[in-house]
Amino acid sequence: MIVVIADDISGAAELAGVARGHGLGAEVQTQFCPDSNAQVVAIDADTRSLPVDQAVGIVRNLTTTVVGSGKPSWIYKKTDSVLRGHVAAECHAIAAAAGCSKILFIPANPGRKRIIRDGNYFVNDVPLHLTEFARDPEYPASSAHVQDLLARCDPETEPTSTIEIPDAFTADHLTEQARRVDGDTLPAGAAEFFAALLQRNPTRTGEIPAIAEPRSDLVLMVCGSQVGWSTGRGAHCLQHGVPVVPIPRRLFDDDFREDELHHWAEEVHHAFCASTKVMIAIGGEKIEGMPPAKLIDRLARAVERITKLATLGSICLEGGATAIQVMQHLGWSRLQVGKAVSFGLSPMEVIGKPAPQVYIKPGSYLWPEGIWEL
After folding, report:
1. Element of type H or E holding 43
2. Which long-range contacts (CB under 8 A, 24 or more apart) does 135-143 make?
3. First to last CA, the chain
4. Distance of CA 31 to CAs 66, 165, 245, Å?
5. Of 167, 279, 299, 339, which has fewest CB within 10 angstroms of its CB?
6. Which pTM does this prediction carry?
7. Which whole number is the average pLDDT over 111-126?
């Protein structure tokens, strides 16, 4: 079993999708279940928004449990591709618990024009601190220098491992670096480096179970990512004929009434009369000064209400914080991964419960064209 430890659910789902695209059985978990028959288990530690000391404790204990199970052939630490979260601290904690003295960290995704050149991070050839990520509500990028980005959230402790961050601006660079990983090295980073490691270490065995067909043709798209919304996600949906129903500002007030939420959910349900796909989002009326966690919680409650009104065939969740809140509200903890529709994106089946098929992706990427064909 290959085990991925991610700091949010979208990262875990992305790498499970990459594994499934390489012909491996894959599962996404919010709590480690060593009894899984999947060849790749991607675990969401849900630590990105936690205080650093708490995040370090969670990933350290999780890694100890994973190693103690005797299951992993190797561990990969999935980080945000643009280094949001407690990247260095979590990498050091996992490496120590796994007995690794070296960390090879490659957050670049050259295929998506996210590269490291001369120690600096670029998105579409623009330095990271000059992109939309400079306005991230939790981890604004104030520099493009990768070492600076790592240092911003690292606690003042003496690590037992060293982090190497090579330049990576082509797929060949990733392939070359994957060859260097040995038993004393914790590989860490983004999806394309993980894919390069899978290419180097093929472990395809046995038959991969298929997931069930969707229960209906209704698709609910959910955007809780502020980066996604600010880069035109609503307009992208409208271009594909998908109506957008933003949550009214009123429903984020502390004194909102449950009947108001219900009436708005009925509006979304009514939108399905005209289209098999509908998008809901925090966007629309501008919301300032409100904690992101509160916004996401209210969005997740709205999704829960909609699922009680409509028999959804698929639900597409954008943004890791959004996805994990929705899963928690609906009681989902394990997802079996189906055949990929594009790199890193696959339909997933909730294990043990009747539910829609689930698609999860990071908020900083567009939905691939295949999603509009659902």
Report:
1. strand 40-44
2. 135/230, 136/84, 136/226, 136/227, 137/226, 137/292, 138/48, 138/49, 138/84, 138/292, 139/83, 139/84, 139/85, 141/82, 141/83
3. 31
4. 11, 30, 33
5. 339
6. 0.90
7. 96
Domain of residue 305 covers 219-331+351-373
Are the beta carbons of 197 and 352 closer than 8 angstroms? Answer: no
pLDDT digits (tens, 9 = 90+) for 30-72: 999 998 989 999 999 999 999 999 999 999 999 999 999 977 9
**Same structural domain, 223 and 308:** yes
Task: Please say if the pLDDT value at position 157 is more than 70.
Answer: no
Residue appearing with tokens 């989002």: 281
Q: Are residues 101 and 43 in the same domain?
A: yes
Supply the mean pLDDT for the chain.
90
Biggest alpha carbon–alpha carbon distance for the chain:
59
- DSSP labels for 277-320? EEEEES-SS---S--HHHHHHHHHHHHHHHHHHS--SEEEEESH
Q: Is residue 277 in a domain?
A: yes
Q: What is the pLDDT of residue 161?
A: 85
Question: How many structural domains comprise the chain?
Answer: 2
φ/ψ of 195, rounded to 5, equals -60, -40
CATH code, domain carrying 324: 3.40.980.20
DSSP category for residue 48: T
Digit-coded pLDDT (tens) for 222-255: 988 776 676 678 888 889 999 988 888 888 888 8
Q: Are residues 362 and 245 in the same domain?
A: yes
CA distances to 142, 189, 191 from 67, rounded to whole Å, are: 36, 20, 22
Give the model's pLDDT for residue 284: 56
Q: In this structure, what DSSP letter does residue 182 have?
A: -
Res 156: pLDDT: 55
In whole angstroms, what is the distance from residue 31 CA to residue 38 CA?
15
What pLDDT sits at residue 364? 77
